[in-house]
Amino acid sequence: MFDFMDFELGDDVSEQPLSSPYIPDASECMRCGMCVSACPTFKLFQIDEETPRRRIRTISKILVENLPISADERMHLDNCLQCRACEAICPSRMAYGRLFDQVRARLRSAPSALARLAFRLIENKRRRTRLMPLLALYLKSGVRKPLRNSGLLKLLGLANAEALLGKPAMQTLASYHPTRVARRGRVALFTGCIAEQFDRDTLLAAIKLLNAIGYEVLVPPQQGCCGAIHQHNGQSAESLIANNIAVFNALDVDAVLHTATGCGAMLAEYQSSDGEASELFRQSLLDINDFLLKHWPDGLQLLPSSLKVAVHEPCSQRNVLKNQQAVYALLAKIPDLSVAPLADNSVCCGAGGSYMLTHPENASQLRELKRQAIAAVRADCVVSSNFGCAVFLNADNGAVCHPLSLLAKQLPDQ
Ligand code: SF4
Ligand code: SF4
Fold this sequence. Notes:
Blueprint: H1 40-45, H2 52-63, H3 71-78, H4 85-89, H5 96-106, H6 113-123, H7 125-141, H8 144-150, H9 152-155, H10 159-163, E1 176-177, E2 185-190, H11 195-198, H12 200-212, E3 215-218, H13 228-232, H14 238-249, E4 255-258, H15 261-268, H16 275-284, E5 285-287, H17 288-295, E6 308-312, H18 315-321, H19 325-331, E7 338-341, H20 355-358, H21 360-377, E8 381-384, H22 387-394, E9 400-401, H23 403-409
Parallel strand pairs: 2-3, 2-4, 4-5, 6-7, 6-8, 8-9
Antiparallel strand pairs: 1-3
């Protein structure tokens, strides 16, 4: 029997800003088991150790009882994808994501040399930018296939990351994009860390759509990674959070928009030592799908399309932002387009932020299930509002794009 009553999270409800919703702590887990069937790792392993309920017991041991945990308990804890499907279904509204981040921070150990390099690259735009010509050369050179076959990448622990590589955009995205129609306002676009190089199509589509509905777009070059990868892996994201809050709060804009729901989920829960500044930031933040829907001009008609599209609903969208319906409503603006949700949209695709790299076998099994659902729906393409999911699902054979790319293609010439 474990006791949650002495749970000390350091973020007591009384410390929440008054406008925040009430967030229960782990003591309110009723162990009802409603989360069990929602959990993708339970789907894979079918054992109690791979359920959210059991992980909360382990979390209690670490945070409440200050007890050591076994290697087995650690493994089952680490198998969690942080998809938060358990949180969305829990009648006690357990803040599973928040608890998990706290445990990861408590269990923090020195990252491997490779992980350190990845963190540094995510943090440092200049280093990333310098690396891009080398990466482009590698992808063009023809050595990719022989290098993969040689087994060297596997030996160096780089095989999984290498398999996800796409062609990077080499030019920096301009920081100002004026509208050519009657101006209605100005928004800022959150691009985060690698989207500017690897998800350029989505960002350009976002800018094109925003300009088309009368908004000029700022892309502040000083912005950086949202911090999700750091925070979910027990590293401090404080400086990344503080930087983004300072950069975006300094702008005179109607809204700060994100295009990737994985980043959006992190941004929407930003907390910093300056509570007022983080509240200000969160108030101006909006998912771009919601913004476009809200501000779509009555007179703007899109061109028809005869495509059949399947909608993948990322966990960050379903379980945190909870705005997946905005995608369907936006796609409905394309005349003749046939739209269907993927079966089992409630089950994670396996990407899980960095999970696809840290737990490649579990991640591949979940991706396989998702690919079966994609094959079954017989769609011309699949849309996903999260870049991470799209990259993972697209590895080696992909037809997944952002819904904004589809919408932007149907804009009439203006
Ligand atoms: S659904 Fe919520 S209350 Fe029930 S066992 Fe899972 S975490 Fe606990
Ligand atoms: S976050 Fe997802 S993988 Fe982790 S326990 Fe909850 S449902 Fe399972």
